[in-house]
């Protein structure tokens, strides 16, 4: 099993335990373990096989959890999970996909209404039976009904990009050990950096297709062979994902990679351009067309000349054949990317190496897993030049949010830490005194202006009252934007991919207010958030709003998701100049409205 598989199992166990009313600390242990495992880069199997190491060296993994990881790695099953699943009705798992319905609420609904399916819950909402249950008002019933449609959408059963990336990297590592593989790369929505991925596409250059496909079939993560042709095979891999592998000869690798990367809309427009130039493009290469029997120039009568392709070995050659520069995969969505390429206006997309600082993270002072010192050391190890410590304000009581006294004490600690870092000359890193304040339901922020005035960096976020009307939520965010001490709006739409839809907000009004006041908007790099999405980030760029890409890290491992935010920014067409934290600290301070 992959790390992602085991993380899913532990999260599932936490849901089952919570449904049964088990000890809250036991539930939390499994959730924390799932988060730890899900963010690991190194395989658990690799760690376990090293006699010099132990799974218990991992944060939050004790001997009991280590034993369960071992059981999963060896057999792919867990006896404890099997036992738990027998005690919980199958419908509970279906209902827990509805945003806002955790295990405890689901148990009440199942017990009270004798539900057998998601359709039963929908009917109970429409009949008004849900609001009659204690703790479920009419407003709650309406929200459940609205979110059932979200839960039913096939789109929300797809893997997060980061989950798919873990599988792709393991797959590529395995396939590169095959002597018959000359070149290999992932394609499809994974390569385009989409927020979620359905199937995984892989393109291989080889003169021995059968050997390549046999090697994939022998992968320990292959659970079933769905199709085996002459040059294509499909298998069922980790997380039950379908993996489609195509094998092409040397001169066709670039054409196949371009073709199977997509998107469909991009390829249609590219092929239309080629046809206008007397060419045709397919997965094997670029070919010249000859006129058919119909009127000259008619597209439906043109046929490829039966001879060697004029391009196809690399993607660059394919695009050059139709008079275009290479177009980055993240832009290939059928928008204006071909027009931009034709006019020489393709953006120089931001890269991970452009990032100088990370400006949203948490410590053990609230709901983080690492201390201030540990986060600082981890940031230095990753080559960052500045960070902002932005623990929660006092409204977020479930995270033990900071009141005035505790916050000022933390800032004093940061001052001392910065002095210590600068003792031997130029510091390797500067720590900004920050806070993530909450936008209160009735307006205002959860810490007073005289405290915020002392901060170096203020993130304002909306965590409560997410079901308020559109006008109210928009007004709360704009009020925060207009506060002179607020630097950036965190995760501006509040969505959780596959888990919770965005709250109802007039994002155009938010972008306009941010442009007017010089407030930044965040792309939260957490793979579950990626908020702003690419469309809204592109609109913010168009309006002149600067974006901050931040990890919202709650552990040292969390700092490693920055690349997910970079992908989102690239899909939005953002360049380094559009992202505030690509600047030096001195340049960033000049840019801040404060």
Textual characterization of the structure:
There is one protein chain. The protein is built from 24 helices and 17 strands. The chain is of the alpha/beta class. It has four domains: 3-156, DNA polymerase, domain 1 (Orthogonal Bundle); 159-248, 2-Layer Sandwich (Beta Polymerase, domain 2); 254-342, DNA polymerase, thumb domain (Beta Polymerase, domain 3, 2-Layer Sandwich); 352-591, TIM Barrel, CATH 3.20.20. Strand 6 (232-236) and strand 7 (242-248) form a beta hairpin.
Give the N-to-C terminal Cα separation: 50 Å
Largest sheet: 7 strands, parallel
Oligomeric assembly: single chain
| Number of beta-strand segments | 17
Task: Report the C-alpha radius of gyration, rounded.
Answer: 26 Å
Order of the strands making up the biggest sheet: 11-12-13-14-15-16-17
Q: If you average the pLDDT, what whole number results?
A: 92
Helix content: 40-55%
CATH architecture title of the largest domain = Alpha-Beta Barrel
CATH class of the largest domain: Alpha Beta
């Amino acid at each position: 099993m992959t790390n992602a598989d085991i993380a899913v199992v532990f999260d599932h166990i936490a849901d089952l335990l919570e449904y049964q009313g088990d000890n809250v600390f036991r539930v939390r242990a499994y959730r924390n373990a799932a988060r730890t495992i899900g963010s690991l880069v190194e395989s658990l199997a690799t760690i376990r096989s090293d006699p010099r190491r132990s799974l218990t060296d991992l944060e939050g993994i004790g001997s009991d959890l280590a034993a369960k990881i071992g059981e999963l790695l060896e057999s792919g099953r867990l006896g404890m999970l099997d036992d738990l699943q027998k005690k919980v009705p199958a419908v509970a798992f279906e209902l827990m996909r509805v945003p806002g319905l955790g295990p405890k609420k689901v148990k009440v609904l199942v017990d009270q209404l004798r539900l057998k399916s998601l359709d039963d819950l929908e009917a109970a909402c429409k009949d008004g039976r849900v609001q009659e249950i204690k703790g479920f008002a009419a407003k709650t019933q309406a929200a459940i009904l609205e979110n059932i449609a979200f839960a039913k959408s096939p789109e929300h059963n797809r893997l997060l990009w980061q989950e798919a990336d873990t599988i792709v990297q393991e797959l590529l590592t395995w396939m590169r050990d095959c002597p018959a593989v000359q070149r290999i790369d992932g394609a499809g929505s994974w390569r385009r950096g989409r927020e979620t991925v359905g199937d995984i596409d892989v393109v291989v250059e080889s003169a021995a297709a059968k050997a390549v496909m046999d090697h994939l079939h022998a992968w320990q993560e292959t659970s079933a062979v769905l199709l085996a042709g002459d040059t294509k095979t499909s298998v069922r891999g980790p997380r039950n994902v379908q993996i489609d592998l195509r094998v092409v000869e040397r001169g066709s690798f670039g054409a196949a990679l371009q073709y199977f990367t997509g998107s469909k809309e991009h390829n249609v427009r590219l092929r239309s351009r080629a046809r206008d130039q007397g060419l045709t493009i397919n997965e094997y290469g670029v070919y010249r067309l000859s006129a058919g029997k119909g009127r000259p120039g008619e597209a439906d009568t043109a046929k490829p000349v039966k001879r060697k392709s004029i391009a196809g070995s690399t993607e660059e050659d394919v695009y050059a054949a139709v008079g275009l520069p290479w177009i980055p995969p993240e832009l290939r969505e059928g928008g204006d990317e071909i027009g931009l390429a034709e006019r020489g206006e393709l953006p120089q997309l931001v890269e991970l190496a452009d990032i100088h600082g990370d400006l949203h993270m948490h410590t053990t002072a609230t709901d983080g897993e690492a201390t201030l010192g540990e986060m600082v050391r981890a940031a230095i190890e990753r080559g960052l030049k500045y960070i902002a410590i932005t623990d929660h304000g006092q409204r977020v009581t479930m995270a033990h949010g900071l009141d005035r006294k505790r916050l000022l004490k933390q800032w004093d600690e940061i001052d001392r830490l910065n002095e210590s870092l600068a003792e031997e000359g130029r510091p390797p890193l500067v720590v900004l005194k920050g806070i993530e304040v909450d936008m209160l339901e009735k307006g205002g922020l959860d810490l007073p202006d005289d405290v915020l005035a002392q901060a170096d960096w203020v993130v304002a976020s909306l965590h409560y009252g997410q079901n308020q009307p559109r006008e109210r939520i928009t007004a709360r965010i704009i009020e925060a934007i207009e506060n002179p001490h607020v630097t950036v709006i965190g995760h501006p739409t509040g969505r959780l991919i596959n888990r919770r839809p965005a709250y109802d907000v007039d994002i155009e009004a938010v972008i306009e207010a941010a442009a007017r006041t010089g407030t930044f908007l965040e792309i939260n790099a957490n793979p579950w958030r990626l908020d702003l999405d690419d469309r809204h980030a592109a609109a913010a760029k168009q309006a002149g709003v600067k974006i901050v890409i931040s990890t919202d890290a709650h552990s040292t491992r969390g700092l490693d998701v920055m690349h997910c935010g970079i992908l989102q920014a690239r899909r939005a067409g953002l360049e380094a100049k559009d992202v505030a934290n690509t600047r030096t600290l001195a340049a960033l301070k000049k840019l801040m409205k404060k």
